[in-house]
Design brief:
Distance between the termini: 43 Å
Number of domains: 2
CATH class of the largest domain: Alpha Beta
Helix content: 25-40%
Bound molecules: zinc ion
Number of strands: 19
CATH architecture of the largest domain: Alpha-Beta Barrel
Oligomer: single chain
Length: 432
Protein backbone atom coordinates (compact mmCIF):
# COMPACT_ATOMS: atom_id res chain seq x y z
CA UNK A 1 0.00 0.00 0.00
CA UNK A 2 2.97 2.28 0.45
CA UNK A 3 3.42 4.82 -2.29
CA UNK A 4 7.22 4.60 -2.05
CA UNK A 5 8.08 2.24 -4.89
CA UNK A 6 11.64 0.96 -4.43
CA UNK A 7 14.19 0.82 -7.28
CA UNK A 8 14.48 -3.03 -7.17
CA UNK A 9 10.70 -3.25 -7.47
CA UNK A 10 10.71 -0.95 -10.48
CA UNK A 11 13.42 -3.14 -12.12
CA UNK A 12 11.47 -6.29 -11.35
CA UNK A 13 8.37 -4.75 -12.87
CA UNK A 14 10.34 -3.71 -15.96
CA UNK A 15 11.55 -7.31 -16.39
CA UNK A 16 8.03 -8.62 -15.94
CA UNK A 17 6.67 -6.16 -18.48
CA UNK A 18 9.38 -7.21 -20.94
CA UNK A 19 8.60 -10.90 -20.66
CA UNK A 20 4.87 -10.93 -20.31
CA UNK A 21 2.32 -9.77 -22.85
CA UNK A 22 0.19 -6.73 -22.17
CA UNK A 23 -2.50 -7.60 -19.65
CA UNK A 24 -6.02 -8.06 -20.86
CA UNK A 25 -8.72 -6.22 -18.90
CA UNK A 26 -9.41 -7.83 -15.52
CA UNK A 27 -12.41 -9.83 -16.66
CA UNK A 28 -13.28 -12.82 -14.52
CA UNK A 29 -13.11 -16.02 -16.58
CA UNK A 30 -16.57 -17.18 -17.50
CA UNK A 31 -17.91 -19.74 -15.10
CA UNK A 32 -18.15 -23.14 -16.71
CA UNK A 33 -21.80 -23.89 -17.42
CA UNK A 34 -22.48 -25.86 -14.24
CA UNK A 35 -25.56 -28.01 -14.44
CA UNK A 36 -27.99 -26.73 -11.86
CA UNK A 37 -29.45 -29.28 -9.46
CA UNK A 38 -32.95 -30.58 -10.21
CA UNK A 39 -35.91 -28.31 -9.55
CA UNK A 40 -36.68 -27.54 -5.91
CA UNK A 41 -40.11 -26.84 -4.44
CA UNK A 42 -40.05 -24.77 -1.27
CA UNK A 43 -43.04 -25.25 1.02
CA UNK A 44 -42.96 -22.61 3.78
CA UNK A 45 -45.76 -21.59 6.15
CA UNK A 46 -45.89 -18.25 4.34
CA UNK A 47 -44.13 -16.16 1.71
CA UNK A 48 -43.02 -12.53 2.07
CA UNK A 49 -42.34 -11.62 -1.55
CA UNK A 50 -40.27 -8.51 -0.80
CA UNK A 51 -43.06 -6.16 -1.90
CA UNK A 52 -46.51 -6.87 -0.40
CA UNK A 53 -46.80 -6.09 3.31
CA UNK A 54 -49.02 -9.07 4.00
CA UNK A 55 -47.34 -12.48 3.67
CA UNK A 56 -49.02 -15.11 1.49
CA UNK A 57 -50.14 -18.20 3.37
CA UNK A 58 -50.15 -21.52 1.52
CA UNK A 59 -47.82 -20.42 -1.26
CA UNK A 60 -45.07 -22.58 -2.65
CA UNK A 61 -42.09 -21.42 -4.67
CA UNK A 62 -40.51 -23.44 -7.47
CA UNK A 63 -36.80 -23.00 -8.21
CA UNK A 64 -35.34 -24.17 -11.49
CA UNK A 65 -32.00 -23.48 -13.18
CA UNK A 66 -31.03 -21.06 -10.42
CA UNK A 67 -34.10 -18.93 -10.96
CA UNK A 68 -37.54 -18.54 -9.48
CA UNK A 69 -39.72 -20.50 -11.90
CA UNK A 70 -43.06 -20.00 -10.17
CA UNK A 71 -44.63 -18.72 -6.96
CA UNK A 72 -48.24 -19.05 -5.86
CA UNK A 73 -50.86 -21.24 -4.18
CA UNK A 74 -49.78 -24.89 -4.36
CA UNK A 75 -52.97 -25.91 -6.19
CA UNK A 76 -52.32 -23.42 -9.03
CA UNK A 77 -48.74 -24.42 -9.81
CA UNK A 78 -47.39 -27.09 -12.06
CA UNK A 79 -44.67 -28.85 -10.07
CA UNK A 80 -41.87 -30.11 -12.33
CA UNK A 81 -41.42 -33.86 -12.37
CA UNK A 82 -38.66 -35.15 -10.08
CA UNK A 83 -38.53 -31.87 -8.16
CA UNK A 84 -37.11 -32.04 -4.64
CA UNK A 85 -39.40 -30.73 -1.91
CA UNK A 86 -38.02 -28.74 1.01
CA UNK A 87 -40.55 -28.49 3.85
CA UNK A 88 -40.25 -25.26 5.84
CA UNK A 89 -42.86 -25.59 8.61
CA UNK A 90 -43.46 -22.46 10.67
CA UNK A 91 -41.04 -20.54 8.47
CA UNK A 92 -41.37 -17.54 6.19
CA UNK A 93 -39.72 -17.67 2.79
CA UNK A 94 -38.44 -14.30 1.64
CA UNK A 95 -35.93 -12.82 -0.80
CA UNK A 96 -32.30 -13.03 0.30
CA UNK A 97 -31.47 -9.85 2.18
CA UNK A 98 -29.30 -7.02 0.87
CA UNK A 99 -26.89 -5.13 3.10
CA UNK A 100 -26.13 -1.89 1.27
CA UNK A 101 -23.20 -0.95 3.49
CA UNK A 102 -20.65 -3.57 4.49
CA UNK A 103 -16.88 -3.89 4.86
CA UNK A 104 -15.85 -7.48 4.26
CA UNK A 105 -12.20 -6.53 4.74
CA UNK A 106 -12.75 -5.26 8.29
CA UNK A 107 -13.19 -7.38 11.39
CA UNK A 108 -14.64 -6.36 14.69
CA UNK A 109 -12.90 -3.48 16.44
CA UNK A 110 -12.88 -5.28 19.79
CA UNK A 111 -10.43 -7.72 18.16
CA UNK A 112 -8.23 -5.05 16.57
CA UNK A 113 -8.67 -1.29 16.17
CA UNK A 114 -9.34 0.12 12.70
CA UNK A 115 -5.87 1.69 12.72
CA UNK A 116 -4.15 -1.61 13.59
CA UNK A 117 -6.09 -3.39 10.85
CA UNK A 118 -5.09 -0.77 8.27
CA UNK A 119 -1.43 -0.40 9.31
CA UNK A 120 -0.36 -3.74 10.80
CA UNK A 121 -2.35 -6.56 9.24
CA UNK A 122 -0.85 -8.15 6.11
CA UNK A 123 -3.11 -8.02 3.08
CA UNK A 124 -3.23 -11.83 2.88
CA UNK A 125 -4.40 -12.01 6.50
CA UNK A 126 -7.15 -9.53 5.76
CA UNK A 127 -8.25 -11.44 2.68
CA UNK A 128 -8.20 -14.74 4.59
CA UNK A 129 -10.46 -13.21 7.24
CA UNK A 130 -12.70 -11.75 4.53
CA UNK A 131 -13.44 -15.21 3.17
CA UNK A 132 -14.83 -16.13 6.60
CA UNK A 133 -16.78 -12.87 6.72
CA UNK A 134 -18.40 -13.57 3.37
CA UNK A 135 -19.50 -17.02 4.50
CA UNK A 136 -20.88 -15.66 7.79
CA UNK A 137 -22.86 -12.92 6.04
CA UNK A 138 -24.26 -15.34 3.49
CA UNK A 139 -25.34 -17.85 6.14
CA UNK A 140 -27.01 -14.98 8.03
CA UNK A 141 -29.30 -14.51 5.05
CA UNK A 142 -27.47 -11.74 3.15
CA UNK A 143 -27.20 -12.82 -0.47
CA UNK A 144 -26.09 -9.40 -1.75
CA UNK A 145 -23.67 -6.92 -0.20
CA UNK A 146 -22.72 -3.47 -1.40
CA UNK A 147 -19.23 -3.33 0.07
CA UNK A 148 -18.26 0.30 0.59
CA UNK A 149 -14.49 0.48 0.76
CA UNK A 150 -11.60 -1.83 1.55
CA UNK A 151 -10.13 0.52 4.19
CA UNK A 152 -6.51 0.21 3.12
CA UNK A 153 -6.83 -3.22 1.50
CA UNK A 154 -6.53 -1.82 -2.02
CA UNK A 155 -8.59 -3.64 -4.62
CA UNK A 156 -8.90 -6.90 -2.67
CA UNK A 157 -12.69 -6.61 -2.89
CA UNK A 158 -12.49 -7.03 -6.67
CA UNK A 159 -10.66 -10.35 -6.27
CA UNK A 160 -13.02 -11.52 -3.53
CA UNK A 161 -15.96 -10.74 -5.78
CA UNK A 162 -14.40 -12.86 -8.53
CA UNK A 163 -13.72 -15.70 -6.05
CA UNK A 164 -17.42 -15.73 -5.13
CA UNK A 165 -18.56 -15.47 -8.75
CA UNK A 166 -16.30 -18.34 -9.79
CA UNK A 167 -17.58 -20.53 -6.95
CA UNK A 168 -14.19 -20.69 -5.23
CA UNK A 169 -15.59 -19.45 -1.91
CA UNK A 170 -19.17 -19.11 -0.71
CA UNK A 171 -20.42 -15.58 -0.27
CA UNK A 172 -23.04 -13.01 -1.15
CA UNK A 173 -22.96 -11.41 -4.60
CA UNK A 174 -20.84 -8.29 -4.22
CA UNK A 175 -21.09 -4.75 -5.50
CA UNK A 176 -17.74 -3.26 -4.62
CA UNK A 177 -16.29 0.25 -4.21
CA UNK A 178 -12.54 -0.58 -4.09
CA UNK A 179 -10.53 2.07 -2.22
CA UNK A 180 -13.09 4.91 -1.86
CA UNK A 181 -12.16 8.59 -2.22
CA UNK A 182 -11.23 11.08 0.51
CA UNK A 183 -10.03 14.67 0.37
CA UNK A 184 -6.30 15.04 1.02
CA UNK A 185 -5.38 14.94 4.71
CA UNK A 186 -8.94 14.55 5.91
CA UNK A 187 -9.01 10.83 6.65
CA UNK A 188 -7.03 8.41 8.77
CA UNK A 189 -4.67 7.13 10.13
CA UNK A 190 -3.79 10.68 11.21
CA UNK A 191 -1.91 12.47 13.96
CA UNK A 192 1.60 11.53 12.80
CA UNK A 193 4.58 13.83 12.27
CA UNK A 194 3.79 15.98 9.22
CA UNK A 195 6.84 14.77 7.28
CA UNK A 196 5.73 11.13 7.40
CA UNK A 197 3.76 9.51 4.60
CA UNK A 198 1.26 7.25 6.33
CA UNK A 199 -0.83 4.98 4.08
CA UNK A 200 -4.46 6.00 4.28
CA UNK A 201 -7.64 3.96 4.58
CA UNK A 202 -8.90 5.43 1.29
CA UNK A 203 -7.48 7.15 -1.81
CA UNK A 204 -6.83 10.88 -1.61
CA UNK A 205 -7.94 13.19 -4.42
CA UNK A 206 -9.06 16.79 -4.87
CA UNK A 207 -10.27 19.17 -7.55
CA UNK A 208 -9.33 17.94 -11.00
CA UNK A 209 -7.58 14.79 -9.73
CA UNK A 210 -11.01 13.54 -8.64
CA UNK A 211 -11.77 12.88 -12.28
CA UNK A 212 -8.70 10.68 -12.74
CA UNK A 213 -9.08 8.84 -9.42
CA UNK A 214 -12.78 8.09 -9.96
CA UNK A 215 -12.02 6.77 -13.45
CA UNK A 216 -9.10 4.76 -12.10
CA UNK A 217 -11.20 3.08 -9.42
CA UNK A 218 -13.96 2.31 -11.90
CA UNK A 219 -11.42 0.90 -14.35
CA UNK A 220 -10.03 -1.36 -11.65
CA UNK A 221 -13.44 -2.78 -10.86
CA UNK A 222 -15.53 -0.38 -8.76
CA UNK A 223 -19.26 -1.04 -9.22
CA UNK A 224 -20.02 2.02 -7.12
CA UNK A 225 -17.88 5.05 -6.30
CA UNK A 226 -17.70 5.88 -2.60
CA UNK A 227 -16.72 9.39 -1.60
CA UNK A 228 -16.34 10.81 1.90
CA UNK A 229 -18.23 14.11 1.75
CA UNK A 230 -17.21 15.00 5.28
CA UNK A 231 -15.48 13.93 8.46
CA UNK A 232 -16.32 14.67 12.09
CA UNK A 233 -15.00 18.24 11.65
CA UNK A 234 -17.36 19.04 8.77
CA UNK A 235 -17.53 19.05 4.98
CA UNK A 236 -14.32 17.98 3.24
CA UNK A 237 -15.27 18.27 -0.44
CA UNK A 238 -17.24 21.11 -2.03
CA UNK A 239 -20.47 20.24 -3.82
CA UNK A 240 -18.66 21.06 -7.09
CA UNK A 241 -15.94 18.51 -6.34
CA UNK A 242 -18.50 15.81 -5.56
CA UNK A 243 -20.28 16.76 -8.81
CA UNK A 244 -17.10 15.93 -10.75
CA UNK A 245 -17.16 12.41 -9.29
CA UNK A 246 -20.90 12.03 -9.95
CA UNK A 247 -20.36 13.08 -13.57
CA UNK A 248 -17.47 10.67 -14.17
CA UNK A 249 -19.37 7.84 -12.49
CA UNK A 250 -22.51 8.56 -14.50
CA UNK A 251 -20.56 8.35 -17.78
CA UNK A 252 -19.46 4.87 -16.71
CA UNK A 253 -22.95 3.91 -15.54
CA UNK A 254 -21.93 3.83 -11.87
CA UNK A 255 -23.75 5.39 -8.92
CA UNK A 256 -22.01 7.38 -6.19
CA UNK A 257 -22.39 6.63 -2.49
CA UNK A 258 -21.44 9.48 -0.16
CA UNK A 259 -20.36 9.06 3.42
CA UNK A 260 -21.85 12.06 5.26
CA UNK A 261 -22.63 12.49 8.92
CA UNK A 262 -22.79 16.30 9.10
CA UNK A 263 -25.40 18.70 7.78
CA UNK A 264 -22.98 20.54 5.42
CA UNK A 265 -21.59 17.26 4.12
CA UNK A 266 -25.07 15.92 3.47
CA UNK A 267 -26.16 19.12 1.71
CA UNK A 268 -23.12 19.07 -0.58
CA UNK A 269 -23.63 15.39 -1.40
CA UNK A 270 -27.35 15.75 -2.06
CA UNK A 271 -26.84 18.87 -4.20
CA UNK A 272 -24.13 17.08 -6.19
CA UNK A 273 -26.58 14.33 -7.09
CA UNK A 274 -25.18 11.26 -5.34
CA UNK A 275 -27.38 8.16 -5.30
CA UNK A 276 -27.16 7.41 -1.60
CA UNK A 277 -26.02 9.11 1.58
CA UNK A 278 -24.43 6.81 4.14
CA UNK A 279 -25.06 7.35 7.88
CA UNK A 280 -26.75 10.78 7.69
CA UNK A 281 -27.09 11.19 11.44
CA UNK A 282 -26.53 14.96 11.24
CA UNK A 283 -29.50 15.49 8.92
CA UNK A 284 -32.42 17.77 9.72
CA UNK A 285 -35.81 18.37 8.09
CA UNK A 286 -34.36 20.67 5.41
CA UNK A 287 -31.61 18.20 4.40
CA UNK A 288 -34.03 15.29 4.23
CA UNK A 289 -36.56 17.30 2.21
CA UNK A 290 -33.78 18.06 -0.26
CA UNK A 291 -32.87 14.35 -0.41
CA UNK A 292 -36.50 13.38 -0.97
CA UNK A 293 -36.84 15.99 -3.77
CA UNK A 294 -33.63 14.87 -5.46
CA UNK A 295 -34.30 11.16 -5.05
CA UNK A 296 -31.27 10.55 -2.84
CA UNK A 297 -31.71 7.45 -0.67
CA UNK A 298 -30.55 7.24 2.95
CA UNK A 299 -28.61 4.27 4.28
CA UNK A 300 -28.91 4.93 8.04
CA UNK A 301 -26.37 2.37 9.42
CA UNK A 302 -27.91 2.39 12.88
CA UNK A 303 -26.04 -0.73 13.96
CA UNK A 304 -22.58 0.81 13.63
CA UNK A 305 -23.67 3.61 15.95
CA UNK A 306 -24.74 1.10 18.55
CA UNK A 307 -21.61 -1.02 18.05
CA UNK A 308 -19.05 1.82 18.16
CA UNK A 309 -20.22 3.01 21.55
CA UNK A 310 -20.12 -0.53 22.86
CA UNK A 311 -16.61 -1.22 21.51
CA UNK A 312 -15.30 1.95 23.17
CA UNK A 313 -16.93 0.86 26.41
CA UNK A 314 -18.84 4.13 26.61
CA UNK A 315 -22.27 2.90 25.72
CA UNK A 316 -24.60 -0.05 25.87
CA UNK A 317 -27.25 -1.50 23.62
CA UNK A 318 -30.44 0.04 22.32
CA UNK A 319 -31.48 3.67 22.09
CA UNK A 320 -31.63 4.01 25.88
CA UNK A 321 -28.05 2.80 26.31
CA UNK A 322 -26.46 4.58 23.38
CA UNK A 323 -26.59 8.36 22.74
CA UNK A 324 -24.91 7.77 19.38
CA UNK A 325 -27.68 5.38 18.30
CA UNK A 326 -30.31 7.73 19.74
CA UNK A 327 -29.06 10.53 17.47
CA UNK A 328 -29.04 8.30 14.37
CA UNK A 329 -32.51 7.08 15.25
CA UNK A 330 -33.86 10.63 15.48
CA UNK A 331 -32.35 11.39 12.08
CA UNK A 332 -33.99 8.32 10.55
CA UNK A 333 -37.37 9.42 11.94
CA UNK A 334 -36.86 12.87 10.39
CA UNK A 335 -35.95 11.24 7.07
CA UNK A 336 -39.07 9.07 7.17
CA UNK A 337 -41.20 12.15 7.85
CA UNK A 338 -39.70 13.83 4.77
CA UNK A 339 -40.39 10.78 2.60
CA UNK A 340 -36.75 9.84 1.94
CA UNK A 341 -36.19 6.36 0.47
CA UNK A 342 -34.54 4.21 3.13
CA UNK A 343 -32.24 1.30 2.31
CA UNK A 344 -30.88 -1.29 4.70
CA UNK A 345 -27.18 -0.96 5.50
CA UNK A 346 -25.50 -1.92 8.75
CA UNK A 347 -21.81 -0.99 8.20
CA UNK A 348 -20.96 -4.55 9.30
CA UNK A 349 -17.25 -5.22 9.73
CA UNK A 350 -16.46 -3.10 12.78
CA UNK A 351 -18.92 -5.44 14.50
CA UNK A 352 -19.14 -9.17 13.83
CA UNK A 353 -19.99 -10.40 10.33
CA UNK A 354 -23.21 -12.39 10.38
CA UNK A 355 -24.85 -9.87 12.73
CA UNK A 356 -26.16 -7.57 10.00
CA UNK A 357 -29.79 -8.50 10.79
CA UNK A 358 -29.55 -6.23 13.80
CA UNK A 359 -30.07 -3.27 11.44
CA UNK A 360 -33.62 -4.33 10.60
CA UNK A 361 -34.44 -4.63 14.29
CA UNK A 362 -33.10 -1.13 14.93
CA UNK A 363 -35.03 0.30 11.97
CA UNK A 364 -38.22 -1.14 13.43
CA UNK A 365 -37.31 0.18 16.88
CA UNK A 366 -36.87 3.59 15.24
CA UNK A 367 -40.46 3.42 14.06
CA UNK A 368 -40.41 1.75 10.64
CA UNK A 369 -43.16 -0.83 10.22
CA UNK A 370 -41.57 -4.30 9.93
CA UNK A 371 -42.67 -4.79 6.29
CA UNK A 372 -40.97 -1.46 5.41
CA UNK A 373 -37.73 -2.54 7.07
CA UNK A 374 -37.94 -5.83 5.16
CA UNK A 375 -38.53 -3.97 1.88
CA UNK A 376 -35.53 -1.72 2.67
CA UNK A 377 -33.46 -4.93 2.76
CA UNK A 378 -35.05 -6.51 -0.34
CA UNK A 379 -37.05 -4.85 -3.13
CA UNK A 380 -36.26 -1.22 -2.26
CA UNK A 381 -32.54 -1.92 -1.82
CA UNK A 382 -32.53 -3.80 -5.13
CA UNK A 383 -34.20 -0.88 -6.90
CA UNK A 384 -31.81 1.73 -5.48
CA UNK A 385 -28.80 -0.49 -6.27
CA UNK A 386 -30.24 -1.12 -9.76
CA UNK A 387 -30.19 -4.91 -9.37
CA UNK A 388 -33.97 -5.30 -9.24
CA UNK A 389 -33.88 -7.10 -12.59
CA UNK A 390 -32.03 -9.90 -10.76
CA UNK A 391 -32.86 -9.94 -7.04
CA UNK A 392 -34.90 -8.36 -4.26
CA UNK A 393 -38.28 -10.02 -4.77
CA UNK A 394 -39.94 -13.40 -5.13
CA UNK A 395 -41.08 -13.15 -8.70
CA UNK A 396 -40.77 -15.62 -11.57
CA UNK A 397 -37.68 -14.91 -13.65
CA UNK A 398 -35.58 -13.40 -10.86
CA UNK A 399 -32.57 -15.25 -9.46
CA UNK A 400 -33.42 -17.73 -6.71
CA UNK A 401 -31.74 -15.82 -3.90
CA UNK A 402 -34.10 -17.01 -1.18
CA UNK A 403 -34.00 -17.44 2.57
CA UNK A 404 -36.36 -18.95 5.12
CA UNK A 405 -36.59 -17.57 8.64
CA UNK A 406 -38.27 -19.06 11.67
CA UNK A 407 -41.52 -17.22 12.41
CA UNK A 408 -43.09 -14.24 10.63
CA UNK A 409 -40.73 -11.26 10.22
CA UNK A 410 -43.60 -8.98 9.14
CA UNK A 411 -44.90 -9.27 12.71
CA UNK A 412 -41.71 -10.03 14.64
CA UNK A 413 -38.67 -8.53 12.95
CA UNK A 414 -36.33 -10.56 15.19
CA UNK A 415 -37.20 -13.49 12.92
CA UNK A 416 -34.58 -12.20 10.44
CA UNK A 417 -31.97 -13.29 12.97
CA UNK A 418 -33.32 -16.86 12.80
CA UNK A 419 -32.26 -17.85 9.28
CA UNK A 420 -32.69 -21.56 8.57
CA UNK A 421 -32.45 -21.78 4.77
CA UNK A 422 -30.22 -19.89 2.35
CA UNK A 423 -30.33 -20.39 -1.40
CA UNK A 424 -28.18 -18.30 -3.68
CA UNK A 425 -29.03 -18.63 -7.35
CA UNK A 426 -30.81 -21.83 -6.38
CA UNK A 427 -27.76 -23.38 -4.68
CA UNK A 428 -28.43 -24.30 -1.05
CA UNK A 429 -25.86 -22.96 1.42
CA UNK A 430 -27.89 -23.62 4.56
CA UNK A 431 -30.79 -26.02 5.02
CA UNK A 432 -33.02 -26.68 8.01
ZN1 LIG B 1 -18.67 2.11 6.31
Amino acid sequence: MSRNVSVPLVLTLAVLVAFYPAPSPAQPPRRSPTSHPPAVVLRPARVFDGVAAEPRVGWVVVVEDGKIAAAGPAADLKIPEGARSIELPGMTLMPGMIDCHSHVLLHQYDEASWEDQVLKEPLALRVARATNHLRADLLAGFTTLRDLGTEGAGYADVGLKQAVEQGIIPGPRLLVATRAIVATRTYAPSGFAPELQIPQGAEEADGESLRRVARDQIGRGADVVKIYADNAQGATFSADEIKVVVEVARLAGRPVAAHATTRPGMLNAANAGVATIEHGDGGDAEVFQLMARRGVALCPTLTINEALGRVRGEEGNGVAGSPRLAKATLALREALKAGVTIINGSDVGPFRHGEGGRELQLMVEAGMPAPDALRAATSVAARVLKVDDKVGAIKPGLLADLIAVEGDPTRDIAAVRRVRLVLKEGTPHREP
